Amino acid sequence: xxxxxxxxxxxxxxxxxxxxxxxxxxxxxxxxxxxxxxxxxxxxxxxxxxxxxxxxxxxxxxxxxxxxxxxxxxxxxxxxxxxxxxxxxxxxxxxxxxxxxxxxx
Length: 105
Prior knowledge:
The chain is α+β, with helices and mostly antiparallel strands. It has helices at about 1-15, 30-45, 65-80; strands at about 20-25, 50-55, 85-90, 95-100. Helix content is about 40%, strand content about 30%. A 4-stranded mixed sheet has the order 1-2-4-3, with helices on one face.
């Protein structure tokens, strides 16, 4: 029993749990800020974590949902070498959400 528990503990220690890291944007997020957050997303994906990109719409921002979708598509395009799109941009209330997972390779 002791040996079995010891082996299970060792196996659990070497396990990597996948976390979901969130990046938040607004539809009017500037290019430099997008590049900065893209670098962070790249680090998260290389370390094996998933990235949840969220565009928050407030007030009149709801008129510019297509800008949010373009922003998320640009993010996915710039990270396509280290990630794959797990879920495409979808509206959930006042948020547009896209999930990226690390690619195998």
